[in-house]
Amino acid sequence: MIYADIELKINSQKGNEILLLKRQSKNDYKKTILTIGVFHGDEPDGEYLISRYLQDRTETSNRLLFIPCLNPDGKEIQTRKNINGVDLNRNFPTKNWIKVSQSDDYYGGEKPASEIETQFLVYVIEKYKPDLILSIHEPYKVVNYDGPAENIAEDISKITGYKIEKNIGYPTPGSFGTYCGVERNIPTITLELPEKEDKELLWHTNKDIFTYIQDY
Ligand SMILES: [Zn+2]
Fold it and tell me: Residue 198: which CATH number?
């Protein structure tokens, strides 16, 4: 049982559902916070944490939005990229988007926002205008941020014990962090979970992030 409303639902190319879930306790919510899991199909633990959080009914003064699994086709075949071999985290319509070879690990598509998953996320951001975005990846065990999110990154780092990295150390044209954080000034946290962590430990380490966003 999941205590959240289905706000939007689309089908991926392979017919898998991509959901936008909403948890909101009051009509006059304070802020909108968007949390995203499974950007990369071989990084399933964000969906695990979101689903586990939503199994309990809790009050929030904010409007909490969740995309538990952005890339269900990639998850199905356990690959980082989507079904078209595109790294969704390089497919955003940023000023620095570049076309690279299809064989590249970070192939960002034939053109910016060519992929339905990217289009969906761009639509959600334009429609709901989140005040804070949390994107959950693996396996670097760090808190990375883009845009005006340094204080939030410090809070998340205190909760998890994962250290902060301003950026991951290589250029990321067309990345989600560049799209939201750098170009739109939305505080954007990229939470990199540890690799293949025990699920109970993972939940225990990260559960207070959800308490944090409930009243952020
Ligand atoms: Zn990732």
Answer: 3.40.630.10
Catalytic residue among 59, 192, 195, 200: 192
Phi-psi label, residue 193: left if phi above 0, alpha if psi -120 to 50, beta otherwise: beta
- Residue 153 host element (H or E): helix 150-160
In-domain check, residue 137: no
* Residue 192 appears among annotated catalytic residues: yes
Q: How far apart are the CA of 28 and the centre of ligand 1, in A?
A: 34
| pTM for this model (two decimals) | 0.97
Indicate the average pLDDT of the chain: 96
User: pLDDT value at position 166?
Assistant: 76
Cα–Cα dist 106/215, whole Å: 36
Indicate whether 175 belongs to any domain: yes
Provide the residue range defining the domain that includes 61: 5-132+142-215
What is the percent of the chain where pLDDT is above 70?
98
Ligand 1 centroid to Cα of residue 53, in Å, is: 21
CA of 68 to the centre of ligand 1 (A): 14
Residues of the chain under the 50 pLDDT cut: none
